[in-house]
Specification:
Elements lengths: L2 H35 L3 E4 L10 H15 L6 H35 L3 E2 L12 E4 L13 H9 L7 H17 L1
Antiparallel strand pairs: 1-3, 2-3
Helix pairs in contact: 1-2, 2-3
């Protein structure tokens, strides 16, 4: 592999190594803020916080790429350690993700929110949509769920189900004209 490609990979993994903890903090603080402000709707990704466990893997991979790009000798022991770290990280993620998901979903439910499967869980990796009022979860809302959740998150807590249905009809009509 030529040096330019190695330095590009090095830069990419440097960015990933720095972004994983930030993404974790961002996701946890977004949920915490939504619960603190008692918004009508918010998104939550249970898998995102467990990605912080991958930070050491990306840090070591970044270091290995740096060694390779600078033509330094990479020992077999270091490579073996990296593969072991990958295995341990995978096991930790497989254990931590369901535990975190259970704990955060239990906490959100205890705050009075309801998971709306009509708006979320439509695609792999999509965020779960939590609503303060179960009557705001309308089955036909899936095609415009993002716009509807954005609108709901800005509405006062006394927003009625009828208002949500009217907004949904507007959004569906606008979506059909696109």
């Amino acid at each position: 592999m030529d040096r330019v490609k190695l330095f590009c990979f090095f830069a990419l993994f440097c960015v990933l190594t720095l972004l994983l903890p930030y993404a974790t903090f961002s996701e946890v603080s977004q949920v915490s803020t939504a619960l603190g402000e008692h918004v009508l709707a918010f998104r939550e990704r249970s898998f995102s916080p467990s990605l912080v466990l991958a930070t050491p893997v990306f840090a070591v991979l970044t270091y290995l790429l740096w060694l390779r790009a600078t033509h330094a000798q990479v020992s077999d022991r270091l490579l073996s350690g990296w593969f072991k770290l990958c295995g341990v990280t995978l096991v930790l993620m497989l254990i931590a993700t369901p535990i975190y998901t259970y704990l955060i979903e239990h906490h959100i439910s205890a705050q009075g929110y309801t998971l709306c499967s009509a708006y979320g869980r439509g695609t792999i990796g999509s965020a779960d949509i939590w609503l303060a009022n179960e009557s705001h979860c309308i089955k036909d809302g899936f095609p415009v769920r993002n716009e509807l959740v954005d609108w709901l998150s800005q509405q006062p807590s006394d927003t009625s189900a009828q208002q949500v249905k009217q907004k949904l009809a507007e959004l569906l009509e606008a979506d059909s004209k696109r």
